[in-house]
Amino acid sequence: MALLEVNGISKSYQANIQVLRNIEFSVNAGEFVSIIGPSGAGKSTLLRCLNRLVEVNSGEILFNGLDVTKLKRKELRQLRTNIGMVFQHYNLVPRLTVIENVLHGRFGYKSTLAGMLGHFTEEEKEKAFSLLKQMGIEEHAYKRCDQLSGGQQQRVGICRALIQNPKLILCDEPIASLDPNASKVIMDHLRSITTDLGITCLVNLHQVEVAQDNSDRIIGLNKGEVIFDGKPIRLDRTMIEHVYGMESRELITV
Ligand SMILES: Nc1ncnc2c1ncn2[C@@H]1O[C@H](COP(=O)(O)OP(=O)(O)O)[C@@H](O)[C@H]1O
Ligand SMILES: [Mg+2]
Fold it and tell me: Which molecular-function annotations from GO does this UniProt entry contain (predicted)?
């Protein structure tokens, strides 16, 4: 059984403008899958539908066999502990320390009050440190997040997602705000989350080559439709042009 099965979901924010059209795909446990496509294709919307930050208009989303679109509030909270998220702009709390931001990933497991009072167990704190160490930023644990570089902040974002013990990590353009060196570091870390920890990753990416270099499988989205779903090797020039439409010339020559 697939970890994630998306069956014919559609979404429109406004009447008559369909942002996602009858999207179908599935992701197996342990896969690293990239979603590519031009801006406006619906990549962010699709990712946000998967953990109900955005509600679909129709279709079903099965996570471990459970239909995400039908979950009540408590079950939804549980689902969100199983699905970590990494954002383009990191979504950290800038004036809090690195370690505090990582521990925020545990909120889904706590009562609101315990979370607000910052009641975390020794085990949680040790886990937070060991994740920071894995990402090579443990020496920054007590700095305010806004003192870190973009690449370092994104590593904090990854630690915050990992401390949830997620089965799936969704990343929305995780390297779009980073320089090439920092991007490489982040992609290597994400890749090893799947390879070494066995956690499934679904990553929105604008850059084709990055997707090709890192993915087990690529899904190509254009105007809200899946028009490619296959191994990177099958994504040839013609298919890339098909996915990116008018934008492709720009992408290929740059
Ligand atoms: N909250 C929203 N309300 C209305 N329209 C939206 C909203 N979010 C995205 N859209 C529209 O949906 C389309 C797809 O956007 P998005 O999912 O952000 O695509 P991508 O991430 O591929 O750039 C765009 O036309 C965008 O303007
Ligand atoms: Mg987007």
Answer: ABC-type phosphonate transporter activity; ATP binding; ATP hydrolysis activity
